[in-house]
């Protein structure tokens, strides 16, 4: 709740202390006292009424004076109207004419720039006066006055004022509001609305609480727009909408009617009303209730913003205003006026005038800062930076950083520096030194500028030295993240070297030193450290900076660290490190040499051919599983040497392969049967060689070994006639699974028969299809014209004179002859052959087509 303090000129809100502490809701309005000339006026006089125009204010006093004021409260004009209270001041929309009425019955309507107008004294107090909104225009010179009667004055064509009574007989008229063609007024009975256009009264809204004295609790009227009237009386508020009546329903009724769209009760007495968008601003005179409120607080007026609903309202905000002499004021002493051009609300009391206005973005930021909601304040300032006038985004950000530092949240404060300080390097340096003072350089280190905009190198070096004292890992992280141009690299290298003298095996420092050497382009020094540490980045360093000349004598170290990566790197860069050089370096480490040569062979079987003989021993020693594939794929391997090594090491499979490759298949088969005793492998070997003598040797060796016989019976059916094997089996020999083997032989035989029959059917069908195709082709007609020639005499096949008789022979091979050019029939009577195709020993020309004419 807001409170206006005496003597305050700037906008400020005051609340009761107990409510201030508990309230976390931001006020909707801000307040300031209208001062300057107003202060002096109200010290000697008292305000009785005030009217607000967009350009100026008109203030009436109890001593009968009217003051024209600017928006700041400075007096611009003064009128001595009466010696008693001014009851009402009315202005037209242009602000050029004013209507004034006073308690002694005086009514004056005149132009502010011309004193010509209406001046009249009545025999009773005139409470209200209202000018037509368009009074300046010649055809709208109308105004109404309210005392015991509602009188309408109109200037006729003779420039005289004509008076007519619009209403009387219901007590004193206390309020009139004129909007467009509608006049609303209140008397002791209720509120009426009159249509000046149709000269009809269109409604009567009765007063709800008739027990309240209308002079002590006057009615408040306010037009929201040209058709919506808001009525407040006592504790009741009604919102009335003027609507057009359907033409079919008119009869003798007015053309318009009023619908009450909202009606509800309030907690306090209403002293004034004003619209605010779809909400309502209400000025309350607080009921006296000592059981619920302190004596000091109970009579302070309240300014509330409410949201009207059909039968109730929702309170949006509520401010208790401490105006001067509020303890002595009654409900009738307060008035609420508003400016339609902008959301300004004037609370008028006899000794004080307070201006309430909607809070802007600056006020919103003020409140957030007051509540220490710095992050929200910063966000609001950034979003509305074009609209704020009193605040600066960077200053708010600095206040937020200071707040976080005071709280001890150094990491958040440092993170905000990046956003708040931006490109201001001076502010950055100040903050760095402040964080150094409080011992929190580590917090701000990761947020320092490191792009195009940079601090002085001394700043970065100061932070690196701080980390080097206490946090090696953090120091290493900064070296990795910061570009080397930010600081003096040599100075940092020297400092790290000094620390390594005290702790020479510290991996973190060594790695960091290698990175520093890399930034300084001393790659050989960095490479030494990486190799010493077996660091994973050593290969990347070599590739990136082309350090192959530096690793010629370090190949063994690289291989010891990671064989796979090292070999891949060496093979990918053979143009920089030759194979011969690598082999020379690895000569004393045969196991590493084998890995290198093996990968070289996998990439290209011919590239390292001069080392194939050497590789035989390496495979035999370190990688026997790959020896046989190597022997199979290599075409440069000396077979005798390989056979010697394999026989020495008793490598049977490799020996068998070498024997077969050297042509000694019988010896190879003998080794399979005698040493491996693997009938399946022996059969497979025999199949590969496809040699009848090998099959004979295999059968001879297996004939006295039942398991071998079983294997042969199961597998040789497609290569050797099984009968040859069966006939040689000794009678009475027990052969395991003989029945199954014989059944398989029969099944294989049946399968072969089926395959042959299937193939035969396919061949017959294909032959028939091709024969039919050939027959259809040969039965087609053949085009013969003057361009064709006889293949024998090479003259045109057709005579120039087609009328003469001629005879042409056309063969299916498309060769054409004159009949007389063909030789006599051959050995087969009646069958003629094409001479050309017969000479080429081709047969398709035996068919003939004879053309005669």
Summarize the structure in words.
This protein has 29 helices and 31 strands. The strands form eight sheets. Strands 1-28-27-26 form a four-stranded antiparallel sheet, covered by helices on one side. It has a four-stranded antiparallel sheet with strand order 2-3-4-5, covered by helices on one side. It has a four-stranded antiparallel sheet with strand order 6-7-8-9, with no helix packed on it. With 853 residues, the chain is of the alpha+beta class. Helices cover 38% and strands 22% of the residues. Helix 4 packs antiparallel against helix 5 (393-407). The chain is elongated and about 155 Å long.
Key features?
about 850 residues; four-stranded antiparallel beta sheet; 29 helices; elongated
Topology overview:
Blueprint: H1 17-22, E1 29-33, H2 37-44, E2 47-52, E3 57-61, E4 65-69, E5 75-80, E6 86-91, E7 97-102, E8 106-111, E9 117-121, E10 128-131, E11 142-146, E12 149-155, E13 161-168, E14 175-179, E15 182-186, E16 190-195, E17 200-206, E18 220-225, E19 228-233, E20 236-244, E21 256-265, E22 269-276, E23 279-285, E24 302-308, E25 313-320, E26 335-339, E27 344-349, E28 352-358, H3 361-370, H4 374-383, H5 393-407, H6 410-420, H7 425-437, H8 441-445, H9 457-470, H10 472-481, H11 489-502, H12 507-519, H13 523-533, H14 538-545, H15 555-561, H16 563-572, H17 579-585, H18 590-603, H19 612-622, H20 627-633, H21 639-648, H22 652-661, H23 665-676, H24 679-689, H25 692-702, H26 706-715, H27 722-728, H28 738-778, E29 807-811, E30 816-818, H29 835-839, E31 848-852
Antiparallel strand pairs: 1-28, 2-3, 3-4, 4-5, 6-7, 7-8, 8-9, 10-11, 11-12, 12-13, 14-15, 15-16, 16-17, 18-19, 19-20, 20-21, 22-23, 23-24, 24-25, 26-27, 27-28, 29-30, 29-31
Helix pairs in contact: 3-4, 4-5, 5-6, 9-10, 10-12, 11-12, 12-13, 13-14, 15-16, 16-18, 18-19, 19-21, 20-22, 21-22, 22-23, 23-24, 23-25, 26-28
